[in-house]
Amino acid sequence: MMRILVADDHAMFGEALHYLLKSIDPALEVRAVNSVAAALDAIVSDGAPDLVLLDYAMPDLDGLQGIDSIRAVDGTVRIAMLSGNTDPIVVRSALAKGVLGWIPKSLPPATLIHALRLMMAGQRFVPPELLETAPLMGLSEREGQVALLLAQGNPDKVIAERLGIEPATARVHVRRILKKSGAANRTQYAAMVRS
User: What SMART domains does the entry give (predicted)?
Assistant: First the structure.
């Protein structure tokens, strides 16, 4: 039997998703919680589920912090994000943390069911339009990681801390990214990525 943990602070959405999941497979065990803290408690008390569906906008931690918190409790748990946020930078940041996918809350039910089936089988699902960010093309993997943090407005020191690199190395990557993109400065680069 597959176990799914839904972490969403909107009770109505959580209930609707619970119903939808049970309609896919009545044998599914689905538990809904309304905070990251409650999700962590559920994982500790019940063991890791087969899939965590984590809302990006939670009251106690944002989705990216939530991913880190869940992974700190169990590094093997599979996580997929739920959100009304379709910002490609946010989506790519979550994917860089190893989530299985990004489910916009606006997905039609048939597409949502398809996405859930893919992720329950361990495959990735992200609507292609959420990955279209031209200024990230042509970058190395590390440059892409730096670029995502740069586009969020992070200074070199924060980029270095998040990626476990030296601040001087982060500065070198930032200069290369700006040169490759043709952006005059950090602000212009962030605007290019978000446009």
Answer: HTH_LUXR, REC
Q: For 148, what's the count of Cα atoms within 13 Å in the CB-facing half-sphere?
A: 21
State the sign of the Cα–Cα–Cα–Cα dihedral 137, 141, 146, 152.
positive
Q: Which domains can be identified in the chain, with CATH numbers?
A: 3-131 (3.40.50.2300), 134-194 (1.10.10.10)
CB 113 within 8 A of CB 24: yes
Phi, psi of 63 (to 5 degrees): -55, -40
Spatial distance between the Cα atoms of 195 and 192, rounded to a whole number of angstroms: 5
pTM: 0.68
59-96 per-residue burial string, b: 16 or more CB within 10 A, e: under 16: eebebbebbebbeeeeeebbbbbbbebebbbbbbbbbb
